[in-house]
Design a protein that fits this description.
The protein is of the alpha/beta class. It has 2 domains: 58-189 and 356-440, D-Maltodextrin-Binding Protein, domain 2 (3-Layer(aba) Sandwich); 193-353 and 465-538, D-Maltodextrin-Binding Protein, domain 2, CATH 3.40.190. It is built from 23 helices and 14 strands. The chain has helices spanning 2-24, 67-70, 80-89, 103-115, 132-138, 146-152, 154-162, 164-170, 199-205, 213-226, 240-243, 270-284, 297-305, 316-326, 372-380, 385-393, 411-414, 422-429, 442-448, 452-461, 477-503, 511-521, 523-538; strands at 58-62, 92-96, 121-125, 180-184, 193-198, 233-234, 256-259, 262-265, 311-315, 335-337, 358-365, 400-403, 406-409, 439-440. The strands form 4 sheets. The chain has a 6-stranded mixed β-sheet, with helices on both faces. Helix 5 crosses helix 21 (477-503), helix 14 packs antiparallel against helix 20 and helix 21 (477-503) packs across helix 23 (523-538). It is globular, with a radius of gyration of 27 Å. The termini are far apart. Keywords: Cell membrane, Lipoprotein, Membrane, Palmitate, Signal.
Length: 540
């Protein structure tokens, strides 16, 4: 009998222990937190409502430092915006900024992933990441944010509910929201990049602003002759992905495009050879700066401000505005925009720069974050009224004041006492002059483009049509892996051949051989993947 009682007693204790362990585990029914495709559950109050979540005490944040910010700061921890954000939220942010540009940043990003030493937050263009955002979730780099946003990001949730077209953009075909997005909040914010030329040099040569490829060639030849033989035109290889200024004249873009529902790859079309022929001729004539392939921001600044470069491709703010500000003591220096060129006068180019409201840039939370729900709440601050003003205008009473109900920049921005260009003054106080996880306000651009030539640039550049742009499609994780396995090497080969064809180290007679090599490397397989993604997107 005693033995039986002891057995029952042990059995009862075991049952109690089992219940206690189940309670401690959260009752997840097998869907453990080790699954990187699922966001951690928010802490729940006894009645089932989400418990109060505090702002994080600290977090680590990886993001490229914009050149205008880098000109005056070692990192964003020195910026007024994040100093103010720390005062408001109590969150201390440790920033890591990869150095260099373009491919150098990607290399450092990949090395970080390989090291498995991830920060809490990574901000970048997630649509351009190798294998795509769905794979980044499935591989355990970042977490799915849908449920966390619903529970702890009321400001972003409200914005998405009011703008379902934006919600469609920031989700993948698998239904994942993967970052807190940078959103351009108005049409007037979406065009900002194109051809720029020295008007004072045009006036000296008695020439109008060029509109066609032939007019550009004539103009560049005249400027070169009058400017001691200096190569007058510059477009950095890194900017060609934003949009080569002249390829639209030939009816195609450089990369994938949507030809009435059919995906094509621009850099294998016959028109691409026509474009290369012109660029090669300009290179041979000394019209295209020979440093274009290795040009960084500092060298470009030097060439423009010393008068060596007379025409380039750039932005309304960090192009026209920046260099007009740097050269304000030279009354003869004047920059104006030119329309995207065509082959026939009077036509509009079929390809130019025009952003979507969302471009893939956003702040994602990594699987290394121990408190994702708190980080979600912190990131959501930027989408509320106070955060919106902070990210777009800075600190009230310092960088802006309210005038007739509108945030208006002070002289700290518009006439900086330290004589900083507007772009650099802005970068000290807020992020609307470039990007970040927030909604960009049109009030920024209305004040930023203070020069008539900047406002005229928008009119000139928006004439280029963008009907062939691929929408913001996403590949599945498996499709992303297939594409990455092909495009990693193919992109290297494409860029090498682009340079060789332009510089003449590879004759254009080998263009057909180049196309066949692209096919052998798998470009047609990638086109089919992109076609499948486009078909899916059109059915969303």
């Amino acid at each position: 009998m005693k033995r039986r009682k002891r057995l029952l007693s042990n059995l009862l204790a075991l049952m109690i222990l089992t219940v206690m362990l189940a309670a401690c585990s959260g009752g997840n029914n097998g869907s453990g937190s080790n699954d990187p495709t699922k966001a951690p559950d928010a802490t729940k109050a006894p009645d089932g409502a989400a418990a109060e979540v505090k702002m994080p005490e600290s977090l680590s944040y990886w993001v490229h430092l914009n050149p205008n910010a880098a000109a005056t700061m070692a990192g964003l921890q020195e910026s007024k915006i994040y100093q103010q954000l720390e005062k408001v939220t109590g969150t201390k942010v440790t920033f890591t900024h990869p150095s260099g540009e373009g491919a150098q940043i990607e290399e450092q990003f990949n090395l970080m992933l390989a090291s498995k030493k991830l920060p809490d937050v990574i901000e970048r263009n997630w649509l351009s990441v190798s294998r795509g955002p769905d794979d980044a979730i499935k591989s355990g780099t970042i977490i799915r944010l849908n449920e966390l946003i619903e529970q702890h990001a009321p400001n972003l949730t409200k914005y998405m509910n009011e703008h379902p077209e934006i919600k469609k953009m920031i989700m993948t075909d698998e239904g994942n929201i993967y970052s807190f997005p940078f959103i351009r909040g108005h049409e007037k914010l979406m065009v900002f990049f194109g051809p720029i030329i020295r008007k004072d040099l045009l006036d000296k040569a008695g020439l109008p602003v060029p509109e066609t490829i032939d007019e550009w060639e004539t103009t560049l030849e005249a400027i070169k002759e009058a400017n001691n033989g200096e190569p007058p035109f510059m477009q950095r290889i890194s900017d060609m992905k934003t949009g080569h200024a002249f390829i639209g004249a030939f009816g195609i873009p450089l990369e994938f495009y949507n030809d009435n529902g059919t995906v094509k790859y621009g850099s294998m079309q016959p028109e691409y050879k026509e474009f290369l022929t012109v660029m090669n001729r300009w290179y041979e004539k000394g019209l295209l700066d020979p440093d274009f392939a290795a040009m960084d921001s500092k060298l470009m600044d030097s060439k423009i401000t010393t008068g060596k470069t007379a025409a380039f491709v750039g932005y309304t703010g960090s192009g026209i505005g920046k260099y007009m500000g740097l050269m304000k003591d030279d009354p003869s220096f004047e920059l104006v925009s030119a329309p995207y060129p065509t082959l026939t006068k009077g036509e509009n180019a079929v390809w130019g720069q025009r952003d979507f409201a969302y471009t893939g840039i956003g702040a994602a939370i990594t699987t290394a974050a121990k408190n994702p729900e708190q980080i979600v709440k912190w990131l959501d601050y930027a989408y509320g009224p106070e955060g919106h003003n902070l990210f777009n205008f800075g600190i009230e009473g310092e960088s802006y004041t309210m005038v007739d109900g509108k945030p208006t920049y002070t002289d700290v921005i518009m006439k900086n006492p330290d004589d900083l260009p507007i772009t650099q003054a802005m970068a000290q106080y807020f992020r609307s002059s470039y990007n970040g996880p927030f909604v960009q306000d049109p009030g920024y651009i209305e004040q930023y483009l203070e020069l008539p030539s900047q406002k005229e640039a928008l009119v000139n550049w928006e004439k280029a049509t963008t009907n062939m742009r691929m929408p913001l499609t996403t590949l599945t994780a498996e499709e992303g892996r297939q594409k990455a396995s092909i495009m990693t090497d193919l992109n290297v080969y494409h860029e090498e051949m682009l340079l060789k064809f332009i510089m003449g180290t590879e004759p254009l007679e080998k263009f057909d051989e180049y196309v066949e090599t692209l096919k052998a490397m798998g470009i047609e397989e990638v086109i089919q993947l992109e076609q499948t993604a486009l078909d899916r997107f059109l059915k969303r």
